[in-house]
Design a protein that fits this description.
Helices cover 32% and strands 13% of the residues. It is α+β, with helices and mostly antiparallel strands and 90 residues long. Strands 1-2-3 form a three-stranded antiparallel beta sheet, with no helix packed on it. The radius of gyration is 17 Å and the shape is flat. The chain starts with 18 loop residues before the first helix and ends with a helix.
Length: 90
């Protein structure tokens, strides 16, 4: 352990978006049209999974609506599966 450097801790913690702010953003996506539903789904996937923009696979086949999971390509190009809520799946 003596040769291992300690992790770098940022001075300021990363700000977390409040659930109130998320509700307001989702309210702007209300509607039955394709664009409104698409926008709501995108926001919900990011909110539910916490993945980075660069990690989401753009392929629709990455989503498994039977298990409410999506495949993401993370650091080191490692594929992993992350769950999302049933509301997002709908």
């Amino acid at each position: 352990m003596s040769g291992i450097k300690p992790p770098i801790v940022p001075e300021q913690p990363v700000p977390v978006v409040s659930s109130d702010a998320i509700k307001r953003v989702l309210a702007t996506c209300k509607g039955k049209g394709f664009v409104a539903r698409r926008d709501e789904a995108i926001i919900r996937v990011f909110y539910d999974t916490g993945v980075r923009l660069s990690e989401i696979l753009v392929d629709v086949e990455a989503f498994d609506l039977n298990t409410d999971t999506v495949g993401v390509l993370g650091k080191g190009r490692k594929l992993r599966t992350v769950p999302f809520s049933a509301t997002t799946g709908r």
